[in-house]
TrEMBL record:
<comment type="similarity">
    <text>Belongs to the cytochrome b5 family. MAPR subfamily.</text>
</comment>
<dbReference type="Pfam" id="PF00173">
    <property type="entry name" value="Cyt-b5"/>
</dbReference>
<keyword id="KW-0472">Membrane</keyword>
<dbReference type="InterPro" id="IPR050577">
    <property type="entry name" value="MAPR/NEUFC/NENF-like"/>
</dbReference>
<protein>
    <recommendedName>
        <fullName>Cytochrome b5 heme-binding domain-containing protein</fullName>
    </recommendedName>
</protein>
<dbReference type="InterPro" id="IPR036400">
    <property type="entry name" value="Cyt_B5-like_heme/steroid_sf"/>
</dbReference>
<keyword id="KW-0812">Transmembrane</keyword>
<dbReference type="GO" id="GO:0012505">
    <property type="term" value="C:endomembrane system"/>
</dbReference>
<feature type="compositionally biased region" description="Polar residues">
    <location>
        <begin position="1"/>
        <end position="18"/>
    </location>
</feature>
<feature type="transmembrane region" description="Helical">
    <location>
        <begin position="50"/>
        <end position="68"/>
    </location>
</feature>
<feature type="region of interest" description="Disordered">
    <location>
        <begin position="1"/>
        <end position="37"/>
    </location>
</feature>
<dbReference type="GO" id="GO:0016020">
    <property type="term" value="C:membrane"/>
</dbReference>
<keyword id="KW-1133">Transmembrane helix</keyword>
<feature type="domain" description="Cytochrome b5 heme-binding">
    <location>
        <begin position="97"/>
        <end position="192"/>
    </location>
</feature>
<dbReference type="InterPro" id="IPR001199">
    <property type="entry name" value="Cyt_B5-like_heme/steroid-bd"/>
</dbReference>
Length: 263
């Protein structure tokens, strides 16, 4: 559009120069007006064409989205400002709850949102009561920080946030007990184990991060972050106690290695 505008202005200027001398109040001749209009015509058409194509594409996207998703014209995306629960949480500001306070938000009180925590961060999961409400498929996650169970999958024994030692589930089990090793072999085994532990810890972090991503607006944005579990002084927080054994299910999933494989 810009080059043709320039051209039409140039024509008008050229015509004015040929017709000179003329007073500044004199209207442009009909010939020069015609040239300007002819030049603007195609560019205006071009813009209208673009708008038509855009409108067509938007309409196509809306139709496809509606038929594919079954209920959404925006492919399931809903901006935060269209979600009342989010606006309410935003107006309220971040929550800082102790573990005891968090336990009240387990879905049993219909006046409270359903909350759960992953790695000390609290998320609102009220949008899925069929998962997190009472009797829901994953209702045991609500009202607590059960990060350990999110990693191990042991929903009966690991509903807590203690990640100490959990990396062992990604480390191979040493099946070489009783075998004799030289000093050099023992040193190498120790180094290998340390390396393996570092990698296993990364895997735990990745797994936890995956859940955090899901609860922090991932998937279709129905869950969102609302605050932190407060474990400061005076919160009644006494730590996780003794380091726990890896639960049965997580132990069973560990890869085993014989003395030959380890060495
Ligand atoms: C570490 C182990 C596991 C954890 C922590 C876990 C956790 C979860 C969570 C939190 C959800 C709800 C997702 C949401 O809010 O949208 C979910 C959904 C689901 N899980 Fe699991 N799960 C695990 C293992 C399994 C296994 C082994 C199975 C199958 C045998 C399974 C089957 C399902 C199914 C069918 C859904 C519903 C999926 C959907 O409708 O989108 N889960 N899981």
């Amino acid at each position: 559009m810009a080059p043709s505008n320039l051209r039409s202005r140039a024509n008008v200027t050229a015509n004015n120069q040929h017709d000179s001398p003329k007073s500044s109040t004199e209207k442009p001749s009909s010939a020069s007006k015609l040239t300007a209009d002819e030049d603007e015509g195609p560019s205006r058409l071009f813009v209208v064409d673009i708008l038509r194509v855009l409108a067509g594409l938007i309409l196509l996207s809306i139709t496809l989205s509606y038929f594919i998703t079954g209920n959404s014209i925006t492919w399931g995306y809903r901006p935060a400002f269209t979600r009342p629960a989010r606006i309410k949480a935003w107006l309220r500001g971040p929550l800082n709850l102790t573990d005891a306070q968090l336990s009240l938000y387990n879905g049993t009180d219909p006046n409270l949102p359903i909350l759960l925590a992953v790695n000390g961060t609290i998320y609102d999961v009220s949008a899925a009561p069929h998962y997190y409400g009472p009797g829901g498929m994953y209702g045991f996650f609500s009202g607590r920080d059960a990060t350990r169970a999110f990693v191990t999958g042991c929903f009966d024994t690991d509903l807590n946030g203690d990640l100490r030692g959990v990396e062992e589930m990604f480390m191979s089990e040493d099946l070489s007990s009783g075998a004799e090793f030289t000093r050099e072999e023992k040193r190498e085994r120790k180094l290998r184990k340390e390396r393996e532990r570092r990698l296993a810890k990364k895997q735990v972090e990745e797994t936890v991060r995956g859940w955090e991503r899901m609860f922090d607006g991932g998937k279709d944005g129905k869950y969102f972050k609302v605050g932190k579990v407060w474990r400061g002084e005076g919160s009644g927080w006494e730590g996780w106690g003794e380091v726990k054994e890896l639960c049965e299910k997580a132990r069973a999933g560990r890869p085993g290695r014989t003395a030959e494989e380890v060495a």
